Amino acid sequence: MLPELLHQLVQQTVSGSESLLAPWAWAPALVLLIVLLVYGIFLRKLDYTRSLEDVGYITFDGLSRRDTANRIRRARKEGRVPPVYPNGWYLVMEGDQLKPGEAKSVQMIGKTLAVFRTESGEAHILDAYCPHFGANMGAGGRVVGDCIECPFHGWQFRGSDGRCARIPVLAEGGKIPEMARVTSHIVKEVNGGLYLWFDAEGREPTWDLPVIEEIETGEWSFKGRTRHFVNCHIEEINQNGADVGHLTTVHDPSFFGGTDLRYIFRWWSSFLWQKFSATWKPCTEP
Ligand code: FES
Ligand SMILES: [Fe+2]
Fold this sequence. Notes:
Elements: H1 2-21, H2 23-43, E1 46-50, H3 65-75, E2 88-94, E3 103-108, E4 111-117, E5 123-127, E6 142-144, E7 147-149, E8 156-158, E9 164-166, E10 187-190, E11 193-198, H4 213-216, E12 224-228, H5 234-240, H6 246-251
Parallel strand pairs: 1-12
Antiparallel strand pairs: 2-11, 3-4, 4-5, 6-7, 7-8, 8-9, 10-11
Bound molecules: FE2/S2 (inorganic) cluster and fe (ii) ion (FE2).
Protein name: cholesterol 7-desaturase
Keywords: 2Fe-2S, Iron, Iron-sulfur, Membrane, Metal-binding, Oxidoreductase, Transmembrane, Transmembrane helix
Cofactor: Fe cation
């Protein structure tokens, strides 16, 4: 009885493996794999973020990478540092992340900001804390006409100049006090981005954002990005771009080599390389 059962089982297994080897069995799986690869490489928009501790840290014994990054940050010697936020245009968000009638709270340039878009499509940015009782207008504020309405007692502030336009409990003919205003920031929407002008002394923009025609006309469109959070002063990234010498040693290996600079030159990742070259010449005007 037992040998007979075993014989049957072996026969079933063999016929099963034969069917697995038949083209009609694996062809659909292969097609599916190719479709997924094509979708992943050409159609899916890459949106990848590396957090602070992901790059540049070798862990101390017994500590996680995150704890190592934090310990190094705390141990850093404080010297003379440039202003935390250099003057210039800052990207607040992509334009399509703010729908008409929507308000958002954003933390940047050392402030909490209320960013909102009117129904007619105009974007405004105000300091978020209401001068009445300090509510964050970006969190729960309602867009009313060209104003944002504070979620606490309903005062309304104009996006264009930050002045209070309405206080619901104000008696007929009552005067809106002068203090009822918040700072309104200079905003510009260009190249698909929503930008804010920051100047430490409150001056007007000293330069304009260049318009990239290919983006404005739709010839170029967003296909993907990677974002890296790093532990440095905001200007260091830009200044590092001038250091052409590091491009070959740091950036030539492909991402297959990983992010640990000790091991990025691996034989199995060397089938793909990036080649950078750059030269500098004096600017004709400042
Ligand atoms: S806190 Fe904003 S209206 Fe009172
Ligand atoms: Fe670099």
